[in-house]
Amino acid sequence: MNSNQQPVLPAVFVSHGSPMTVLDNGAYAQALAEFGRSVVPQSILVVSAHWQEAGIRIASSPHPELIYDFGGFPRELYQIKYNSPGAPALAAEVASQLKRAGFDSTLDPHRGWDHGVWVPLKLMFPEGRIPVLAVSLPMLSPERLFEVGKALSALRAKGVLIVGSGGIVHNLRLMNWQKKDSPIDDWARTFQAWVKQRIVNRELPDLLDYEKRAPHAAQAAPTPEHFAPLFPVIGAAAGSPRLTPIFEGIEHANMSMFTFQLLD
Questions:
Q1: How far is residue 190's CA from residue 204's CA, in Å, rounded to a whole number?
Q2: Please, which residues have CB within 8 angstroms of residue 71's CB and are 6 or more apart in sequence?
Q3: How is domain 11-263 classified at the CATH fold level?
Q4: Looking at residue 85, what DSSP letter applies?
């Protein structure tokens, strides 16, 4: 690589867990901070489980506000700020890339950043200086979400860190809310291991059909929105990713915090 060239950045999947992780200096927070110190993005693109739309919307404000899309937490959580600028120029480029790939998208100058965006970024890049672009999670099939990521993959060579924010195992009904370090449920451990192995082995057909092929899929992902950001991340990794874990733990009995990067 020429010394003047921007290194190709990884595509990253973040299991963002509870909003409280932003106040916790535990192993997960430390692992995300360590990853943040290992990369130098020019900008960050995030597809969050907490912004679902029928189509693709792109938050184009130069200064998006934080959305505190949760309730019942300590007051200090609602006082956290994250002052990174938006990325209007990148928003226009993303819209153009998606249009060329056959996807309609809409610029949204009013949308802020939900906690699936600002919580992990606050842990990774606490200085809040890197421009951030939030892109909605469209209600599409895994195959089409993969194609969305593929359409954006070239941005990684332009200094864009592409992040999918959700959770490999996410079932709020079955969590042990009272105890973070509860014994891990076997079904959650098995599902997470299955997903990791399929990515490592590049078994994309299995992943795309996870609802039928994965063990305990109905328990691990009873609704698709937290698992679905995985597919644009894999698509953005250009089809032949090498998985490097950032953090692999499971909290509250079955809430996956499995966070990893994919790099060719």
A1: 18
A2: none
A3: Protocatechuate 4,5-dioxygenase; Chain B (3.40.830)
A4: -
**How far apart (Å, rounded) are the C-alpha atoms in residues 161 and 181?**
31
State pLDDT tens for residues 70-96. 998 999 999 999 999 999 999 999 999
Exposed / middle / buried, residue 6 (Cβ in 10 Å: 0-12, 13-18, 19+):
middle
Burial of 39 (0-12, 13-18, 19+ CB in 10 A): middle
Report which DSSP code applies to 110: S
pLDDT, residue 264, reads 76
- In this structure, the dihedral spanned by the alpha carbons of residues 134, 157, 197 and 175, taken in order and rounded to 10 degrees, is -20
Backbone angles phi, psi at 133, to 5 degrees: -125, 120
Q: Which amino acid is at 54?
A: A
pLDDT in tens, 35-50: 999 999 999 999 999 9
Domain-by-domain residue ranges, the chain? 11-263
